[in-house]
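>> Question from a student workshop board

For tomorrow's exercise we were told to take the sequence and the ligand below, predict the bound structure, and bring the output to class. My setup keeps failing. Could a helper post the expected result so I can at least see what it should look like? The ligand is 6-O-phosphono-beta-D-fructofuranose.
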Amino acid sequence: MKRIGILTAGGDTPAMNATIHGAVIRANQLRIEIFGLIKGFNSLFNPRVPHVHLNPLYQEIPEIDPTKGGTMIGSSRDYVDPDKTHELDIIASRLLKLGIEGLICVGGDGTLNGLQPLAERLPTVLAPKTIDNDLGLNYPGEPDEWVRVNDPGATGGFRYEKRDSHAVFDLNYIVNYATPGYATAVFVSASGVERIRTTAESHRRIAIIEVMGRHSGYIALGSAYGRPDIILVPEHPIDMEQIVDRVKHIYDLQKNVVIVCGEGIVDEKGTELGAETKSSDPAGNVALSGAAEALRHKLIAMMGDRYFQLYRRGNSAREAIFTRKVGHTQRGGRPIQFDRFYAAQLGAKAVELLLEGRNNAVATLQYNSEKGFAVDGFDAGRFRDRWGHIHARRLYPLLYDPKLLKPSQRGIEYLLPIFTDAIGDNDLEHLRRTIFAAGNLVQPYHSINTDVNKRIRYLKAEQ
Ligand code: F6P
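>> Workshop helper replied:
Here is what the output should look like for this input. Compare the format with yours to find the bug.
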């Protein structure tokens, strides 16, 4: 293999540039040219296939900065439709014309689903990234537990349901223990929880903090590091009576409560609290928004104004209970050391997988309780259920304690290997030196896009 392509797809995460960096460094060592395709799968739909040569003369271009969040080659939620075979053939011929013999897609479960039809046309591998930490398997047999249930109301007339697991859960057998971007998202969320606590404490208020993660509660689980009083995850339907009891108990004691909720939390009937907008992105992901607000309304209705008036802690429940979203700050900015280090290794592993002749494989981060973390390769087919679909990983139920509304002992054991020493001295030093640099006040922001634009090349238009 002389030349490979790399693209970054789906929502940005802090460690995508680190993955590109790792891939380019390995490609340099192996004397392989590497082209960055602009804006994810979008570049493949463009007859001119905008691209950047990332390592002319096997030297990485200076714009590659593993400490910078986002992706220097751009991303989109564009999706390859497996039924559009003609379009797929055209895409394959465009890549052939560019001399690209293998493709690395940096993405999550949507991207892995999306690259399946491409892998039938040229060697394609995935380097994972997602703050949601939902690309992976809690145990290798997990895809076999999904079943299709007829549902006339659902798209396609069916929906997927997961049957109870009979597998033995062991941290050593998790496929892809953590995805690059997850640690940084948890770092931002936990810091946000700590900061909001002081307002709740000072003003005797109840804060509900919504974190991302779609239907997966890994970010919410990790936010435990910020020491919220209650954590609600999408995998366990909420029980409002239990929550109100717990909130009152804590409020009586300390005059403030901090609740973290994953954006995908569901009620007793399994309905998402966060109003789902009708539109879904091209990869089929529905947008979730408003879980914290919905929870706030339920708390207001159930606790009532009188409760707060009796305590002389405000005039109304509406005043006392407030919500905040950590929002896109958990997805942006400088990746912390854990993410940078393993993202780079996974990028390098993706190059190696292509060179080893692997196709439709995923570079994974494996954990071993004696040896720590190591990267490996896993066939993408093993992520697929009987119908070929790749499901987003959900929080393994035993990692959460639904009585305590907090991580269980297993959950704590899961988190520790990732977060102990996840932040490097260089992360702190970087913050110290850059945030209040005098130049920030004088110099306008210089976007990486301006520099990368100058390097974009195109395939000659098709006749
Ligand atoms: O999948 C990553 C993610 O950040 C989710 O946690 C979140 O629901 C979604 O993307 C938000 O997407 P967007 O940035 O398109 O609003």
